[in-house]
Amino acid sequence: MPGNKQDGVHSSGLLTRLGLMTAILIVVSSMIGSGIFKKAAPMAVDLESGGLLLLCWVIAGLITMIGAVTNAEIAGLIAAPGGQYVYFKEMYGKAFAFIYGWSCFSVIQSASIASIAYVFSESVNAILPLPHLSAEMESFNILGIFYPFASFGVKALTIAAIIFLTVANYLGVIFGGIINNIFTSLKVLGILIIITLGLTMSGGNVENVSPIGANPSADYGTSLGLFGAMFAAMLGAFWAYDGWNNIGYLGGEVKNPKKNIPVALFTGVGIVIGIYLLTNFVFLYVMPVSEIIEVAQKDNTIIAVEVMRKFLGFGGAFFISILIMVSTFGTTNGSILASSRIYFAMSRDKLFFKSAGNVHPSFKTPYTSLVIQGIWSCMLVLSGTFDQLTDMVIFASFIFYGAGAFGVFVLRSKMKDHHRPYKTVGYPVLPLIFVLFCITLVVVTIIQNPRDAGFGLLLVLSGIPFYLYWNSKKRK
């Protein structure tokens, strides 16, 4: 089991300095990033219904809360740097834990960092158009899938943002925590201003939310009809809700983690669900589904920007663009801060690059892990577009979300005598519902979007030879 903390320093050498409020803000910051500002548009294309669009956000929010409720028991039982990686090691052994950690490195967390930072740069581009390369260079592709030089100005700024925030977290967990708290507070305040202005000044109409149910004229471009369209749309909603479990990765740096991490999960997820439902209602109140679909069909557009532009003109578009910059910058910081601890924990188990387990002698941060993560995230920025990256992330994430929820049953058997500060409400029904939903989402994604699902699965399985190599080296 993980070591003790003494004098504000965890047995791993990391500083234990993050309080409950910072933990809550890390949960909120890790979730509110780019999805809430951007995903309503492609979801509207899938559904062609305002009512179903809101229903997707409700369902995704409830499923996320069930996941958080389930995960809270495990977080209260095990607190160590690496979060879910450490949980999986206790549940299923080091091989499965490694595949999870490798998946975070190869796609889940690194692609999240890349895609959130990408939207930060898109919002800058909305105010100050960024340069492009020649048409010939930007059309260059690999296998007809990857266009590394497309929107090159946006991608270059994205890489610069990742480098800057990696350096900031290199310099200390307290510095990274301060950045997180400031930017999270600013973005929540900004979103509340949007909701207030949208409901009071936009001249919108509740009738814009219609149709409430399925659109009779909709042509659902899926082999599974409306059912498939709902799941395709929910991928977008789940992207916006994703990141709720990042706080677990900081188990060695949160004060009283067995109590504070579960509280942070409940509080943070509840706040985000309320904000997301209000924000999407405002989008529909101001702009009917037909107009939202038109926005989705234009390149490098963000629905939140266009909604504010509609009733406040350039000033509104400018304000929301600044807010998206603040939001995505803060979320990128939170993801960089938390995710690097996974590879740190793997290295300490001799199942990752040895240097990733280094703790900086002065700053007490996993500095090499941060650098490795930053380099790979920058490479992923060049690999694809925002939507390609997020679909791969959600597909891979839900494989492990389901495994994590099932782990509650496993640990009730393996660690039945250990003290649990918190026990899952609704056990065993709620964890089972979450597991079944995760299985369904993964299967439907494979049917609906085999290319991105296949590429995401390939990145997950690419860890097998690395595991065999590091494990054999460890035995020797």
Describe, in plain words, how this protein is organized in 3D.
The chain has a single domain (9-475), classed as Amino acid/polyamine transporter I. It contains 18 helices and two strands. The protein has helices at residues 20-31, 35-38, 40-47, 50-77, 84-92, 94-127, 135-138, 152-170, 173-200, 225-241, 257-286, 289-296, 303-348, 367-381, 386-414, 429-448, 450-461, 463-475, and strands spanning 5-6, 9-10. The protein has a two-stranded antiparallel ribbon with strand order 1-2. The protein is globular.
Whole-number mean pLDDT: 87
Residue stretches low in confidence (pLDDT < 50, at least 5 long) are: 1-7
Strand order of the largest sheet: 1-2
The end-to-end span amounts to 24 Å
Q: In angstroms, what is the radius of gyration?
A: 21 Å
For this structure, what is the CATH homologous superfamily? Amino acid/polyamine transporter I
Morphology: globular
Q: What's the total number of strands?
A: 2
Strand content: under 5%
Largest sheet, in brief, is:
2 strands, antiparallel
Q: Into which percent range does the helicity of residues fall?
A: over 70%
CATH architecture: Up-down Bundle
Taken together, the total number of domains comes to 1
CATH class: Mainly Alpha
Q: What is the structural class?
A: mainly alpha
Oligomer: single chain
- Tell me the series of helices and strands, N- to C-terminal: EEHHHHHHHHHHHHHHHHHH
CATH topology name:
Amino acid/polyamine transporter I
Tally of individual helices: 18
